[in-house]
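Milestone M4 deliverable, item 7.
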Amino acid sequence: MKYFILFFLTIAFSGTALAQGGLQIGQPIKDFAVLANYSSTKAMVVVFMNRSCPNSRLYENRLSSLSGEYASKGVTFLFINSTISMEGSGDPTTNVPAGNDKLKLLPDDGQKISQQFGGTKTPEAFVLQNVNGSFILKYKGAIDDNPQLESSVKEPYLRQAIDAVMANRAVPVPEKRALGCMIKRF
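Output delivered:
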């Protein structure tokens, strides 16, 4: 019984420590070299994807549409592939449906980006607002409330967050737990 309690406490505290890792709402992102290339963008949306994850594939068209819609408004979308290949080929999308060619997935070498952001699921979105050259986290989490049917979405969390950031208002729901596949850490 004593070992069971010790094991349970170890798991509980480990989960809490992992959940608190990464970027928190209101914090600036530091040492993310990619941001230097986008100093003139008003906002940036970083989305962790995995083409072998069914939920990520369900969102590809929605994300492509959002990216196209907001590009002219000064919002940049970055789609990050945080998957680690186990086959040694270096390509984590081997034998996975091609998906939407409009979504160019950038590699997350060594999962450094997903760890820095605290990304845990695919897909998971992070909205950053450019405030005098410093990117501040304003939203993290789910894209919307219905991965299966776009036509049945009642809460478009990501769209609401982007609109709030662009209007310089508080994001109505700054965090919403993302649904999807776990980002496996190695």
